[in-house]
Amino acid sequence: MYTLISATPSPYARKVRITLAEKGVPFHLKTEVPWDSTTKTPEYNPLEKLPVLIPDNGAKPVYESHFILDWIEAKHPDPPMLPKDVDDRLFAKQVEVVADGICDALVLCFFEKQREHPSEPWRSRQMRKVEGGLQALATWVDQSNNGKFLIGDSLTLADVAAGSVLGYMAVRWPEHPWRTNFPQLKNYWESLDQRESFATTRPSPQKISDPIV
């Protein structure tokens, strides 16, 4: 059985958890706080980031969420989480880039506001990326067939990525008005959140023991 090292609020790790669940691949979940000095993450990932997927056959650990998803898709192709059409596959990866970009900016903002003297210009710059990314996701939802999935009539990695970042915002940034500003995006997210794979992997806050400097 695989072992997935995860942080409870991580949208990156949640993408992997959802994908494994959708494919029916069993795994053991191990929780870490990668920011703390006690973390074992560097033993598995030289970049000291989560998630990390540890295969059960002695193979090397797999890290970086986008690569883990590609690895899972290659190792467990059924049911497919990427479209067969080349352009649709590329679009799915583009959505993942935007969703991860929103995540990256939000994580930077989260840590910045923990500092004793946070930089407002820095925060504003990151939030511009968030707003641009949300607008892109909302536009793609509008352009989809039925507003339920971004590509075709079934769940793909595009939806996993988009749904994960929106779920992260609901936990870490509940005051953000994206649900009011983009009602179609809100409806899309709420539909995804009813799936078992999403409902059982909802993020939760995690205490960071070490100071953020």
Automatic annotation (TrEMBL):
Pfam families: GST_C_2, GST_N_2. SUPFAM superfamilies: GST C-terminal domain-like, Thioredoxin-like. Residues 1-80 form the GST N-terminal domain. Residues 85-211 form the GST C-terminal domain. CDD domains: GST_C_6. It comes from the Eukaryota. GO terms for biological process: glutathione metabolic process; L-phenylalanine catabolic process. One of its GO terms (molecular function) is maleylacetoacetate isomerase activity. This is GST N-terminal domain-containing protein.
